[in-house]
């Protein structure tokens, strides 16, 4: 896949405080909107999509969520990366009856549906890199998240 965009530290968060998946989704989608990456409609669309198609994934030592929604809500492609101060429960991507205790979020804003599927596949493959994930979870600044992802994942 060709590189579609650069990551933006302005939409990354470290130790975000939230108690529900909806609160996380609202905070991150609002941040993407404030920086012009998504339309106002994105905020509600991502919350509604998560209810129908949950995005929580369990890996060995951490939980990840990959929320995304339709391309019509996106102005420019971007991924907001967020570590959570305390884990938040998301429903499992594979079984919506199972909970996933999520530590890190990769909120996708893609404006090309063809790229979205390949992006998800690439991300899931790279999320299995335990060293990368440990470094992301230990990051102390949004710029560190940006650097780690930019250096390890070509999107």
Automatic annotation (TrEMBL):
It holds the Pfam family PTS_EIIA_2. InterPro entries: PTrfase/Anion_transptr, PTS_EIIA_type-2_dom, PTS_SugarTrans_NitroReg. Residues 5-152 form the PTS EIIA type-2 domain. It comes from the Bacteria. Transmembrane segments: none annotated. This is PTS system galactitol-specific IIA component. It comes from Pectinatus brassicae.
